[in-house]
Design brief:
Elements: E1 11-14, H1 20-31, E2 35-40, H2 43-52, E3 58-60, H3 66-80, E4 85-88, H4 104-129, E5 136-140, H5 153-173, E6 179-185, H6 191-204, H7 208-217, H8 227-238, E7 249-252
Parallel strand pairs: 1-2, 1-4, 2-3, 4-5, 5-6, 6-7
Helix pairs in contact: 1-8, 3-4, 4-5, 6-7
Length: 260
């Protein structure tokens, strides 16, 4: 994993940081010496994070809710004394269904968590980031934000939205020396990906193992992505080596060509 020595004292906030990719990123920053504050909505994930992450670094919040985002930032910034890195990692898979079968409520919830949460967190973070000499925003998109994805329209639309948000923010905040980038994970070896693949197999009436083979057939390296690779990319973007990178969408996807 990429690491550098100068994360000592770096102040980091990560949404949905108690499990999955967010937890991998949190663990990587902590191991590199940063002070990390995470929020999450899952009680089991929060309990696990409290047991292993530094004391007082975990907060329960639904980042689709403006009031809860404000509460998290008040708590975290009070402990950190400022902010250097914001990682907008919150996201849900949303429904796997034909567009005519997607409910209005499922569409709205997917957009709220996957896209609006980024806006809400950035809005709170920017005043603190302006006082940092290493200010970095990392938004979690997906290869579904650059490739069409049948039966996954809410998720895909939200992730395309994250890319537009990222590139617009990079221009808007560049004068404040705030770097803004997006990471586009591919087929990550995670519970969420396994649930999606299995749901698509069921929706299409095909064998689950055959569906996995079909999915990886269109990946250049023919494998899933370990979460540690996403974490390493986040550390690189927040490092001194990444200070000249902004407005970019980094595909960490093992060469995904199409989504099935």
């Amino acid at each position: 994993m990429f690491a550098e020595k100068n994360f000592e004292g770096c102040r980091v906030m990560i949404s949905a940081g108690a499990s999955g990719i967010g937890r991998a990123i949190a663990d990587a920053f902590v191991a590199a010496g940063a002070h990390v504050q995470v929020c999450d909505i899952s009680e089991p994930a929060l309990a696990d994070a409290r047991a292993s992450l530094p004391k007082n670094s975990v907060f329960r919040a639904d980042v689709a809710d403006p009031a809860q985002v404000r509460a998290w930032f008040e708590h975290a910034l009070g402990l950190l004394g400022g902010l250097d890195v914001l990682v907008n990692n919150a996201g849900i898979a949303g429904p796997t269904a034909a567009v005519t079968d997607v409910s209005d409520e499922d569409w709205d919830r997917c957009m709220a968590v996957n896209l609006r949460s980024h806006f809400l967190c950035v809005k709170q973070a920017v005043p603190a980031l302006r006082d940092s000499n290493r200010a970095t925003i990392i938004n979690m998109s997906s290869v579904a934000g650059r490739l069409p994805y049948a039966l996954r329209t809410p998720y895909s639309a939200s992730k395309w939205g994250v890319i537009g948000f990222t590139q617009s923010l990079a221009l808007e905040l560049g004068g404040d020396n705030i770097a803004v980038n997006a990471i586009l994970p591919g087929i990550v070896d995670s519970d969420r990906v396994h649930q999606v693949v299995e749901a698509k197999a069921q929706a299409q009436g095909v064998d689950i193992q055959a569906k996995y083979e079909e999915v990886l057939e269109h990946v250049a390296l023919h494998r899933m992505i370990p979460r540690s690779d996403i974490a390493a990319t986040a550390l690189f973007l927040a490092s001194s080596a990444g200070r000249s990178i902004s407005g970019q969408c980094l595909n960490v996807c093992a060469g995904v060509q199409t989504l099935r």
